[in-house]
Every structure is written in C-alpha cells, then in structure tokens.
Amino acid sequence: MQRFAIGGRLFPLVFLSVYVLVDWATFIHDPPAINITPWNPPAGLYLALLLARPRGAAALTFAALMLGDLLVRGSPAPLPVLAISNLLVVLSYGAGVWLLALRLRFSPTLGRMYDAVWLVIMVPVAAVAAALGFALPYMVAGLLPWPDLPAIAAQYWVGDVIAILTVTPFLLLHLHRTPGNGPRRSRIETALHALSVAAALAVTFNPLVPDPSKILYVLFLPIIWVAMRRGLAGTTTAVLAIQIGVIIGLSNTPGHWQDLTYYQTVMVALAGTGLLVGAVVSERWRLEISLGQRQAELSRVARLSLIGEMASNLAHELNQPLFTTVGYTRACRQLLVRGGEHAAVLDLMDRATAEAERAAEVLRSIRGFLRQDGQPAKVDLRAALDGILVFIRPDARRHGIALAVDLPADLPPLWIDAVQLDQVLLNLLRNSMDALTNREGRESGDRIAVTATLRERMVEVSVADTGPGVPDDKVGPLFDLFFTTKPSGMGLGLPICRSIVEAHGGRLWLAANGPGGACFSFTLPVVHHA
Ligand code: ADP
Predict the structure, then answer these.
(1) From 299, 494, 520, mutation site for ligand 1 pocket: most ligand atoms within 8 A of C-beta
(2) Separation CA 323–CA 428 (nearest Å)
(3) What share of the chain is helix, strand, coil (3-state, %, to 5)?
(4) Which pLDDT value is given to residue 253?
(5) Nearest CA to ligand 1 atom 11
(6) 479 CA to middle of ligand 1, Å?
(7) Contact indicator for 226, 196 with CB cutoff of 8 Å
(8) CATH of domain 374-530
(9) What is the mean predicted confidence (pLDDT) over 385-411?
(10) What angle do CA 276, 277, 279 make, to 5 degrees?
(11) In ligand 1, which atom is closest to the CA atom of 495?
(12) Residue 491 near ligand 1, beta carbon < 6 Å
C-alpha cells in the first residue's frame, strides 16, 4: 500500500484540532444537540484518516468523535451513551476499511478504477451499520423515541455518506497526487469548469425558482463535464464545491431547509455518479500511459532485432570505405617515400578522409536505432530516406533491384520522432526487399519506388514494389501482431509502423495490391509555416 505524507508526533494533535474546528464550523444545530445531521463533513475527515493511515486511526477517530460531542454539541447525553454510540460508529467504519484494505487490496491513493468503485460500494454499506450503531444506544437509554429510528438512521446515513463521498476522495487524491492524472488543461478551461459549477448552482438556487428541488438535475451537468475532462481528481473538487454550494444555497432559500435530507439524497446520487465517471476517465488515461510504455518497449525490441538483420549489410557497407581508406593511405606513403608531388599526396589524403567520413556516417545512422524513443521534432523526409537507404542499397545492388525516390522539391518538414520515422521507412523498405528477393524466379526490372505527395496538412508517403503482392487471404491479418509469412519473420514490423504513424496523428494502409506488386502508404503531419 502506498504511503501518505502524513504523520509525525504532532499529527494526532493537528488532526483533533482540525476535526473539532470543522465539526464546529459545519454543525448546524444549537447545542446541546445529538450528532445527527444531513451534512456531516467530519465523517469525511475520519474516513480519510482510517483509509490513509490505518495505524492508530481508530483510537484517534474515537477521540475526535468524543471531543466533538463534548466541545461542539455540549455533551447531549450521559458519557456512557456517547461512548458506546461513538464506539459503534468507529467499529462500523473500521470494519469497512479493514475489508477494503486487507481483503480487497484497496489502495487509498485511488489509483485504479477498482479502488473508486469499492469506495463507492463500501461507504453506503458501512454507513448503514454506523447509523444504526449510533442511534440504538440513544434509543436504549430512552433519549430518542423508538418509532423515530428509521427516520433518524436515514438522516444520519445520508449525512455521513454524502460527506464521505465528497470529502474523503478529495482529501485522498489531494494529499497524494497520483501520477497520470490526465492531460493538463488550460487555465481558460479550468475557469470555465469553475464557472459551470457556479452557473448550475445559480440556476438552481435563485429567487426566480420557487422550488429548487425540482431542478436539481441541473447540478449533474457540470459534474459530468468536469469528470470527462479532468478525471477523478477534478471531479472530487467539483463535487465538494457543489455540496458546499447546495448548503449555502439552501440556507438562503426560505422554507426549504427542512428538506435538506432530500437534497442530500440527490447529492449522494450525484457524488456517486461523478466519482464513477471520473474513475472511468482516469482509468482510460492510465491505460493510455501504460499502453504507450508497452508500445515503446515493443518498438525497441523490434529495433534491436532489425539491427541483427542489418549487421551483415553494415559489415559490407563499412568494409568498402575502410578498405579504400587503407588503399589511399598506403598510396600516400609510397608517394612520400618516393618523394612524389605534394599536390598528389594531398589529393590522396582528402580522398582517404572522405571515405573515413562515409564510414562514420554509416555508424552514426545505426546509432539512432539504439537510442530510446525521443520527442517529435522537425524531420526532413529526404534526409531520413538517405540515411535509411544506406542499409538497403547494398542488398538492392546485389539483387539488381532499382531504388527510385521521387519527393516534391518543396516538401515541408515532418513532425515526428526521427528514430521512429527511420523505423517505419526501414520496415516498409525491408518488406519490399523481402517480397522481391524471396519469391521464386527473379524478374528483371524489379524496383522499389518511394514517393511523397503533400495533402493539406499531411504528407502521404508511399513505398511501392514490383513484388508478388500480398495474397488475398493474407490481407486481413496483415497488421496483426505476430502475423508473418516469413520463416524468420517476427510479424512486428507492420503493427509497430502503424502504431508509430497513428501515435503521430497519421494513418498507414495497404494502398495498392496485386500480382504486379504491393504499395504501402502512410500519412504524417507536416510542420506549418507561419
Ligand atoms: P515480418 O516482416 O516480420 O513478417 P511485418 O509485420 O513487417 O512482419 O509483415 C507481415 C507480413 O506482411 C509479411 O510476413 C508479409 O507476408 C506481408 N508483407 C509485408 N510487406 C509486404 C510487401 N511489400 N509485399 C508482400 N507482402 C508483404
């Protein structure tokens, strides 16, 4: 279980002081009065404590309840009655929390949808036990009439449930910021969210509306909007704000205060709905994050396997410039020994340097593949293709396959992570090479053509070959993970290319196919010039 940054020697004192203060500020009856109220925020405080810091929390909660009764409510019953009834409350919620934490592996950071759902289930159930446990000692002692038990328990229940559903998740989420709380929202949007909450409250509670209880559904609208845009954390703030707004609104609407229990019942529905929608939205964000991580991991694995494949090409590609460099330097030496011409020596040295630089360039290109995924940036398609063709060319030459690149002269830069673009290009080109070299019976005039066209804000890049194409029955699963027709294939290339392209807002598809060859096309956004 994750820990909360609360504790220290002074913590019990701080908690008790805050508790009594909140109790005093929100308890709406004049003392001496029994602690039954349709809005009981202190319950939200101690439930957060029980969930976040179970050790010693039950004793502290009991002390807080007793202090509240003695200091805020003027000791409304004999001490044993107060003690037994408060003890039963602590036991009820304690049992609920015990069940959540130990039996259901609930995490108080509300990091998963599972946690929010179990909280929303546990609270109303434990509150039934707490409501009965609280009221019964007063009945037994003759301080409250037995026939009033259902009404009293219902009022207690609704007061606790709404307070816990509004205050507890708010505290839990704001004391411990769970990572992945979703995309950052602009200040303007945050202001609009706050405005929508205020507007819904103003529509519900204003002098033109004689009976606010009839239009309480208006309050659901901002909650659903906030839940969808801000997930669980934002929803808890909005729900708390609406709850406080309802209390203020009602206290300013003459003749409706006695209906508080009804209003609070609607608030329970609102808080429950908001929390569940918020939890679903937060869960989606978390899944997106973990899917992204998994995809990054997968593309790294695929990259590594490609590197293995490339090793022989690389050896060939490096061997040539190194061999030539050695030749040039030997020739240099001989010239110098023979006292040859200065200019001829310089020319040979320049050639040797150029060859060594070519070898270094090849090595630089491969290094890009070993890097972790980076950030999107401006990338020149032509330069990226030049880098990739270094790996393809030797093989193509060996098999007599022509490589044609036809890009518009004014192509704007693409917006993508350079390494990932390399990966897409390399995968498609390698697939075309495989298609051409693996088929039975070689044909003359084989070629692979890379073309690009600018379409509005996207560039469409196509890699077409004159291979046998994809058999009709293989077109369906082409982009499935691990689908391959090659003996040593991994079936990762196309799905990874597609996810890379889609992650950058583009598409990848089989654009043309037939016995004359296959053509894969993908789109990527371009960088706009202002
Ligand atoms: P792998 O290359 O490891 O098989 P891919 O996902 O890159 O994995 O490709 C999946 C399958 O798609 C290949 O096995 C092949 O059957 C088919 N394919 C891909 N590109 C072409 C192409 N240009 N021509 C014909 N078939 C292709």
Answers:
(1) 494
(2) 31
(3) 65, 10, 25
(4) 83
(5) 484
(6) 9
(7) yes
(8) 3.30.565.10
(9) 88
(10) 65
(11) 6
(12) yes
How far apart are the CA of 511 and the centre of ligand 1, in A? Answer: 14
Given a cut of 70, is residue 296 above it in pLDDT?
no
372 pLDDT tier (thresholds 50, 70, 90): very low
- Dihedral (Cα; 144, 147, 150, 154), 10-degree rounding: -40
Instruction: Mention every residue, 6+ apart, whose C-beta is less than 8 A from residue 349.
Output: 328, 329, 332
Give the separation between CA 57 and CA 54, rounded to whole angstroms: 5
* Edge-to-edge order in the sheet of strand 517-525: 402-406, 447-455, 458-465, 517-525, 508-514
The rounded Å distance from CA 514 to ligand 1 centre is 14
What is the position in ligand 1's atom list of the atom closest to the CA of 467?
A: 24
Residues in the chain: 530
CA–CA separation, 250 vs 252, rounded Å?
Answer: 5
Instruction: Report the C-alpha gap between 361 and 229 in whole angstroms.
Output: 47
Class of domain 1-178: mainly alpha
**From the CB of residue 230, how many other CB atoms can be counted at a distance below 10 Å?**
23
- The pLDDT tens digits of the residues spanning 115-158 come to 999 999 999 999 999 999 999 999 999 999 999 999 999 999 99
Question: Which residue matches tokens 């044993």?
Answer: 80
Q: With pLDDT > 70 as the criterion, what percentage of the chain qualifies?
A: 90
Six-digit token string for 455: 């379409």
Looking at mean pLDDT, say which of 264-278, 295-309, 370-384 comes out highest. Answer: 264-278
pLDDT surpassing 70 at residue 90: yes
Domain range list for the chain: 1-178, 181-308, 310-370, 374-530
Confidence class for position 309, pLDDT limits 50, 70, 90: low
Mean pLDDT for all residues in the chain: 87
* Integer angstrom CA distances of residue 108 from 52, 102, 390, 479, 521: 6, 12, 54, 40, 48
Stated pTM of the model: 0.59
Contact 489, 503 (CB under 8 A): no
| One-character DSSP codes across 101-158 | IIIS---TT--SHHHHHHHHHHHHHHHHHHHHHHHHHHHHTTSS-GGGHHHHHHHHHH
Q: Is 483 in the pocket of ligand 1 (CB under 6 A)?
A: yes
Q: Give the 3-state secondary structure of residue 387.
A: helix
pLDDT at 1: 42
pLDDT score, position 530: 41
Average pLDDT over residues 499-516: 89
- Identify residue 37 by its one-letter amino acid code: T
423 lines ligand 1 (CB under 6 A): no
In angstroms, the first-to-last Cα distance of the chain is 51
CA-474 nearest atom, ligand 1: 16
pLDDT at residue 367 in the model: 59
Q: Is the CB of 489 under 6 A from ligand 1?
A: yes
